[in-house]
Amino acid sequence: MDELHGDRDSLAAQLRSLRLRRGLTLSALARHTSYSRSSWERYLNGKALPPRAAITEFAAAVGVPATALLIQREQEQDGRRPGSRGPLPHEESAAPGRHVPSEAPQHEGPAEAAPPSGPSRTRTALVSAVSACTALVAGILIGGWIFGGNEAEGQNREKARNEPQCREFECRDKDSQRTGCHIGAWTAAATWSGRTYIELRYSPGCRSAWARITDAHVDDTARVEGPRGARNERSVTYENDTYSPMVEAPYPASARACGVIKGKETCTSAGGPSPMPPALTDEREPARKPAPAGSG
C-alpha cells in the first residue's frame, strides 16, 4: 500500500496509519471534521497537501497532539522530507574548496578580497544540523504516538472525563464526541422501528441527551426532544447510523429520542433512571443489538 502512495515516511502515510489505528472510516473523518470525505481521500492518498486546519482537526479526531504532524507538513510544503540533511530550498552554499572564478566581474576601484569560505561552510552545516534535529524530533514524536497511541488516547479520555467542555444548556446544539460528553454516557431508553434501533443517550457528567439510530438508511433521521421544546436532529448521510446534536437534560426523564425511519416516526419513552443493559459508553461503537424476531 505504501508503495502505491509513495514514501512510507510521508505525511500521507502517517495520517493513514493513525486513521487505521483509530479505526475511523473516511466518512467518520468527514463527520468529525469540517472537511469532506473526498477531501480526506485526496489528503490520505497523497494527492493534495492538507491545510494546517485540517491537520489540527485530524489530530483531535484521532486523539494525538498536532505539533509533529504540523512540522512534517511544513517540511513537505518546503519540498523536504523528515531526515533530509540537505540545505533549505533556494539556499545555495559553496562546495568545500570552491573558489570565486577569476573571470567574475569586479567593481571599479580598489579590489576587495572575497569573503572567506569558512564561515559560509559553518553556516551551511549549522542549517543542515538544525534541519536534521527537527526531523529527528518529529520522527520520534510521531513514532511514539503511532506505537503508543493507547496512552495518548487514555490521557485524552481522562481529561474529558474530569473536565467536560459543556454542561446542561451550554451543550445544546453541540456534538457529544467533540465535547467529551460521550465518555461515561449510557442508554436511558430505546425502541425499535423495523430493524432500526433507536436510543436515547444520556450523559450524567454533561447533564445532556441525544438520539442515536443504528442499522438505518440514508435520509433516516435521529431526533432528540428535551425540556421546554428543545430539540435537535441529524439525518444519515453515509453508512447506516448517526446520532443527533445534544439538548440539555437535567435528568434522563426530561428527554426522549425519536427516529424517522423510511418516513415513519417512532419514539422512545422518557429516559429511565439507570442504564439499559448493555450500556455502551462510546459513540465510536454503534449499538449492534440483534433485531427482534419478526422485525423485518
UniProtKB/TrEMBL annotation:
All residue ranges annotated as the HTH cro/C1-type domain in the record: 15-69
Statement: the UniProt record of this protein carries the keyword Ribosomal protein: no
Cited PROSITE patterns: HTH_CROC1 (PS50943)
Ranges annotated as spanning the membrane: 125-147
Recorded superkingdom: Bacteria
Gene3D superfamilies: lambda repressor-like DNA-binding domains (1.10.260.40)
Keywords linked to the UniProt accession: Membrane, Transmembrane, Transmembrane helix
Region (Disordered): 75-122, 264-296
Keyword Membrane assigned: yes
A single GO molecular function term of this UniProt record: DNA binding
Pfam families listed in its UniProt record: DUF2690, HTH_31
Protein name as it appears in the record: DUF2690 domain-containing protein
Lineage of the organism: Bacteria, Bacillati, Actinomycetota, Actinomycetes, Kitasatosporales
